Amino acid sequence: MRGMPKALIFVIDMAKREEYSVLKNFLTKGGFEAVAAVGSRDVNINYNIDFMTMSVDQVAKVAEEFDLLALAGGYKIYYHVLRKKPPLKIWDLNIDLEKLNALIQHFYKTGKTIIAPLAVPGYLAQLGLLKGKDATVYPITELIKILRDNGANFVNKPVVKSGGVITAKDITTTGEKEFLTILRETT
């Protein structure tokens, strides 16, 4: 008999501190065992998995152990998606895109749920994963344009489910009941 489903929360950046804790809380309340992973040393959380110490193949193998992927992108993803330089020199956009993409592609190709809040839907759109799908994103003109330019149908709602992808404008302001209802419909 299999235990509770497992959710992998990849914390790319902690700039929006509540993003990780809200995702973890929602997933736990949704019946998932939530496991945190990091890909850089500037993420200040307790984590179980360190992608910095793994090869791309090992990252994909870890993905096989999970039923759902949630991405906490913070400002790193925001500036990467917009192709802008961060305003502060102390911000390093050290995202290992090869590992991130291997992780995302594994979940997408195997039909497992991906949760993408804030600017992360823009990144998924740039990868071509939202083409023909409904999606929402943090409500700034540039991110909405990125969704549309990459074939996604922007929907002005707090949380949107399309296929196995759940997008959220701002997970920290999304209602728990609304999120859990959509999560249960998807998983």
TrEMBL record:
Biological classification of the source: Archaea, Thermoproteota, Thermoprotei, Thermoproteales, Thermoproteaceae
InterPro entries attached to this UniProt entry: Class_I_gatase-like, DJ-1/PfpI, Prot/Nucl_acid_deglycase
Full protein name: DJ-1/PfpI domain-containing protein
One of the record's GO cellular component terms: cytoplasm
Organism: Pyrobaculum aerophilum (strain ATCC 51768 / DSM 7523 / JCM 9630 / CIP 104966 / NBRC 100827 / IM2)
Gene3D superfamilies: 3.40.50.880
DJ-1/PfpI domain residues: 6-174
